[in-house]
Amino acid sequence: LGVFENNISAKRCYEAAGFQEYSRRKCLLPPGEWECIDMEINMNRCSEKMIYKASAKQSDTVREITHKTINEIYPKYYPTGAVKFFIVHHNDNNILTDINNGNVYLLNVDDKDVGTVTVKDNEILRLFVLPQYQHKGFGRELLDFAEELISRNFCEILIDASLAAKKIYKL
Questions:
Q1: Cα–Cα distance between 38 and 1 in angstroms, integer?
Q2: Nearest to residue 117, comparing CAs of 130, 127, 102?
Q3: Alpha-carbon distance 107 to 95, whole Å?
Q4: pTM recorded for the entire structure
Q5: pLDDT in tens, 30-69
Q6: Residue 79 — φ and ψ, nearest 5°?
Q7: Whole-angstrom Cα distance, residue 74 to residue 142?
């Protein structure tokens, strides 16, 4: 990214976004010669994120994300019996069936799967983010992804939501 030296506001804006100066050079543009500042962003500081379709070999990953989240978060909202119900409901067979039907997606951040969402027709199901990755916008990213996917073919979106996820569903 190149910025003219005299454009201080643009330079500050890019710096605020994480860009850093790495070189200076002379640029010949009418009406003369300008000092250019080349800036780059350090990709090591930014998270690399990707949402992708889960395969059968990742069913354990989907289960681990789902069960870890239920076991750590749900007891704050539900009695023990309800937590056990959710664990049984999100069992290996149901997860694998959804994966084989092409309905399950994983969110990968910096080479680690941290969240999952299941989309069946116009319904958003099984949206979970590992507890240590919550409150970083990843649940919202999965929700936005699922909504966009559904809106391609449906006018109405149904969300299977828990009390624990109530905050991300508020507009």
A1: 6
A2: 127
A3: 16
A4: 0.70
A5: 677 777 777 776 554 456 889 999 999 999 999 999 999 9
A6: -70, 165
A7: 19
